[in-house]
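Handout, section 3.2

Students often ask what a structure token actually looks like in practice. Rather than define it abstractly, here is a full record for EamA domain-containing protein. The first block is the sequence as you would receive it.
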Amino acid sequence: MSDITQTPESAAPAYRHIASGRMFQFGLLAAFITTCIWAGWLVSVKMGAQSALTTFDLALMRYVIPALVLFPFLYRSRQMLLRVPKWTLVGIVLGAGVPFFFLSSAGMQYAPVSHAGLLIPGTFPLFVTAIAVIVFKEPLSRPRFLGLVAIMIGILALLLISMWSLDSDVWKGDLLFISASFFWAVYTICLRVAGLPPLAATGLLGSVSTCILLVLLATGVVSSGMSLVSANELAWQFFVQSMLVGLFTGFSYGYAINALGAERTAAMGALTPVLASLLAIPLLHESIGLAAIFGLCFVCVGVVFASGVVKSLGKKHHV
């Protein structure tokens, strides 16, 4: 039996095909691992908030190593790359590249990292679904719609709670986070439509982003603070930014999108604020109130329905 479930229309484009059976389960696992790494990345950013490293430093770590390591995969896929629509490649490069990274970093100057975990991965499933339904005329099933509504309720609850006692400048950071979330949604959709191998797509993203960063450095727009931090801190940031976020999630996220589709993968990503909050308890000694737990539960329930886990388990049970 084929691992790909065809849509009823024989002429349906490849990006509407999703995996089934074991491939679908592997896709869920890849999406969950990606979400765990994202949550750990947010906590590590908060722990290193007092670092002398600049946004340019972190961005360079994020993109340069994947660019070098994955260039052979990019080169092997050059013929496939030429067949991909240019607007799709631009969406991949800008959606998860330098604009996304700098929007996320700028937002942290006004709002706490907890807002980044809430708004960037939490809201981009809504953007992904909106783009998929409006632009690509994707169908929206009732379970997925209800799941997205639950995610929205949970996000709004968490956002109102976290903003209750903060100053008025927080809204600036929140808007920047939401903008970054939209960019990431564009990346997710374009990556799905392009159908590139995950490692080749990550190599493309890293190569173009590294070139942009080097141009910014050469023109004096950005500066570096790497010489001001310890070797241990530098090694830790390289591990998180380059190995985990840059290389590993570059593959796992791409694999999840190819197996599950953009919308289901985006819904799984909404678990990031939940996992980040749980990690913050032992690592940052933060506590979670009952109201926050209420919001997190809504997000969890929403992810279960919007990601298609229930539907997949139901089919397996009736086989």
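Discussion prompt for tutorial groups: The radius of gyration is 19 Å. How would you have guessed this from the sequence alone?
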